[in-house]
Amino acid sequence: MSARLDVRLTPRSGRNEIRALEASTLSVRVTSPPVVGEANAALLELLFDVTSVPKSSLRIVSGQSSRTKRVEWTTLDMEEVTVRINQKLGGK
Fold it and tell me: Could you tell me whether strands 25-29 and 58-62 are parallel, antiparallel, or unpaired per DSSP bridges?
């Protein structure tokens, strides 16, 4: 069981937030700058919180130095990831 999702990351934003989930792309903003992996770490921290998974089960599999990344959850399937993200988006 695993899920992969494309993420469009905007660093140096006013706050850490998930903006939208459209098709198979998640739009995310983080306050951290894209320096020495800070934005990537902020992205993962936000996704840990939103999807309630252990840190060892979430990783960036491609796009470490790009705004478009592919993230993988090793303990959730795509349906569960989508449900958890949509619950967060619905709670705004």
Answer: unpaired
